[in-house]
Write a structure and sequence with these properties.
By secondary structure, the protein is an all-alpha fold. The protein has helices spanning 2-6, 9-13, 26-34, 39-48, 55-69, 77-80, 82-85, 102-111, 117-126, 129-146, 149-160, 165-176, 178-186, 192-207, 214-224. The protein has three domains: 14-69, no CATH class; 80-186, no CATH class; 192-224, no CATH class. Helix 3 (26-34) crosses helix 4, helix 10 (129-146) packs antiparallel against helix 11 and helix 11 crosses helix 12. The longest helix has 18 residues, at 129-146. The chain starts with a helix and ends with a helix. This is Transposase.
Length: 225
Amino acid sequence: MSKYAEGDPKTLSEIGFQSGQVGKYLADCLFCFNHELSKKETIDYITQKGCHVPKRTAYEYLSKIETAAERKFALHGHYKNRTTELPHRKGSKGCQADYVTREMIFRFLWFSEPLEESHHAYLFQHYPMLYEIKLCIQSFRQIYECGNMPFLYLFIEKHLDSGIVSLQAFAKGLLKDIEAVENSVASPFSNGFVEGVNNKLKMIKRIMYGRGSLQLLRAKLMLKI
């Protein structure tokens, strides 16, 4: 708790490579990045070094490194030939047909992991909404990469008229909380550390439910934080 009471607010709330628990392992992440390890292998490596954070948090941090370096981590072997492996799996539908897994589509949309040309063409031809979703993800990332407020307004205006209901709902959600969204685009600061402390306090409170008095709960909170 002392770091929040006495620390520099600018440093604590700034989004950067040194922020958070994973930031302490930046050198290890860069070591894996430069030695062509995949994200999964990198996370396994820093976990062995003592970094214990949710995988989602670690993946998001590694994505920041990719953005800064303008190149990607190596693909994990599990994903390199996922589709080509399917015909050789016993009991798999791939024994009779060539198809792309849903996971590969998600990774293509979100992480821009490559697909085979034939799969790419087939998906965009038969499921044109994937093209709109891909553009939506790229446009939204560009807003934050450039810190461009007009892009944000254009993004919301465009997707309010989208033919995809989920994108409409997303745009309406941004519009509903537009002040906070504008601040997140314009400012390098984040309230992530506050939310993290709140989450930890609530978790401890639930663990302590029915086990003692308020004095014991207070002591537990002070000990853990």
